[in-house]
Amino acid sequence: MKVIIRDDSKTASVWAARYIADRINEKAASNPGEPFVIGLCTGSTPIETYAELIRLVKAGKVSFKNVVSFNMDEYVGLPESHPESYHSFMHKYLFDQIDEPAQNIHILNGNAPDLDKECADYEKAIAAAGGFDFFLGGIGEDGHIAFNEPFSPLNSRTRVMTLTEDTRIVNSRFFDGDMNQVPKQALSVGVATVTDAKEVMILAFGPKKARAIRDAVEGPLSHYCTVSALQNHQQGIIVCDEAAVGELKLNSYKYFKAVEAAENR
Ligand code: PGA
Question: Which CATH architecture has domain 2-263?
């Protein structure tokens, strides 16, 4: 895996957005007419990356007309119109401001009558679209990718997940600080759904992510930290600010800096 380190989340997010735009443009040039299939995440972390992508779309530097997206998760039982649903989040922070056609947008339905069928159909729809070219994710403080909490199988697929108390406490900041308002379950792509993508990018900003980044990068490949699955991926990139790499060994930090400097020479 590569770890890209920038001074702050703003410069890291601009780097990430431009990288994604380049990938979309490269596929449009090499395989004209073929969709670019991307997995997308929610949370505080990707907001600045989405803002830069919106800026690039408005500046005519990239278009989402031929992008097909699948979001990684959604709460169970929360109305789509709820301000904290991931449907609402994605429309507010990205979809309403770019040119991605509505029919290309896919988000799990956490209110489906048959949740298991909803998850199985999602996997089928991803496969029918040709599989992911790229997956953009965040990382939880406990090292989760999507809602694949610690001890989720690394070969897992889209399914109903029970959220840990830790995750519900962390997410209560979006629900008036009241953990009881945070849904107890979510639908989530599996770890293998993410790592099947040709390329995976994880964003991690701030000191609260430092332990998870240490476990993901320097720890063993383990269901204890599900982002560690990226260690077995051929095209895995973790984009961090300085605070998020604060618990890496100095030698690891220097290694990733040196690799990037050498590649840019
Ligand atoms: P955050 O969430 O971006 O709000 O920190 C990330 C995650 O839990 O995956």
Answer: 3-Layer(aba) Sandwich (3.40)
